[in-house]
Amino acid sequence: MTSLKMLPVGIENFKEIRRDGFYYVDKTPLIKELLESRGKANLFTRPRRFGKSLTMSMFQSFFEI
């Protein structure tokens, strides 16, 4: 039987989620969409607790590579 991954409730740091093996839905295809849109400014609207900070942390990790 495989062990289940924990949900990252309250964790908004992408590196921590990857390092500690939490469950994560991959949103990296958003990076391609973001780069192709070529907007001067991009607005990420979501309700509270819907992953805005985590998405920004994922973008930061990607662009630091």
Task: Write the element-wise H/E pattern from the N-terminal end onward.
Answer: HHH
How much of the residues is beta strand, in percent? under 5%
> What does the average pLDDT come to?
86
Report the strand count: 0
Query: By helix and strand content, what is the structural category?
Result: mainly alpha
Helicity, in percent? Answer: 40-55%
Instruction: Please give the radius of gyration in angstroms.
Output: 13 Å
What is the makeup of the main sheet? none
Low-confidence stretches: none
Q: Name the overall outline.
A: globular
Number of helices: 3
Q: How would you name the oligomeric state of the polypeptide chains in this document? A: single chain
Distance between the termini: 35 Å
Short description, anyone?
This protein has helices spanning 14-19, 29-37, 52-64. The chain has 65 residues and is mainly alpha-helical. The chain is globular and about 45 Å long.
Could you explain how this protein is built, in words?
The protein is mostly helical and 65 residues long. It has helices spanning 14-19, 29-37, 52-64. The mean pLDDT is 86.
List the helices and strands and how they pair.
Elements lengths: L13 H6 L9 H9 L14 H13 L1
Q: Top keywords for this entry?
A:
single chain; 65 residues; mainly alpha; 43% helix; 0% strand; globular
